Amino acid sequence: MDFASNPIEIKWIPVSCLVPNPWNPNRMSKDKLTKLRSEINARGFMVPVLVRPFGESLQIVDGEHRWRIAKEQGLEKIPCVVSQLDDSAAMIKTLQMNGFRGENDPEKLASLLADLARDTDRETLSRLLPWSEFEIEQLISMEEMEKAQSSLRDMTTVKLKPPELELYVVVVTSEQRLEIEQAVEEAKKRLAVEDDGEALSSICRDYRIK
């Protein structure tokens, strides 16, 4: 049966008519569950739950966490796709839905987060996305490190002779990063220099002298 002969129909079904399946291996951390709950509260159900007829009820094949949140929040109905599946097909479909979502390409993810971070603070991103502020900061640091390495490669390509530079990366919180950036900017003004590394080195020398 092809897609054209089996069109998908979304139905709003009472939460009380749905039951979870006993084989679902998917587990969600408390933090991610909290974020999913917040997203559903803010935007509602944007992805329907996949179910199949099961006795007098409908058994959930994919979307158990969304259903539990709906039940917890007292929602009467949620959008569902009803599919005629036997036990084996239902189990396979659960694994497919869990596994076919794919994985994020680290470099593209880092670049996308860096773009978002220009207009959205890390705390907000952490609240909306499945990562902590620390994880987001680490990913953005990957993007910044790649840009720094790319700049060094460009300098070599045009046959310039850069000074003996080393890439120095430190993982910090967003608050610590802001403090460091402010201190570096103040040192650059005080020393009348443009190089961040020179300014940071000056701050470290002053600290050692004290």
Describe the structure.
It is a single chain. The chain has 210 residues and is an alpha/beta fold. It has three domains: 10-99, Conserved hypothetical protein from pyrococcus furiosus pfu- 392566-001, ParB domain (Alpha-Beta Complex); 105-165; 172-210, no CATH class. It has helices at 30-43, 64-72, 87-99, 106-117, 122-128, 133-157, 174-191, 196-209, and strands spanning 10-14, 18-19, 49-54, 57-62, 77-82. Strands 1-5-3-4-2 form a five-stranded mixed sheet. Strand 3 (49-54) and strand 4 (57-62) form a beta hairpin. Helix 1 packs across helix 2 (64-72). It is elongated and about 80 Å long. The protein starts with 9 loop residues before the first strand and ends with a helix. 13% of the residues are buried. Mean pLDDT is 80; it is low at 1-5.
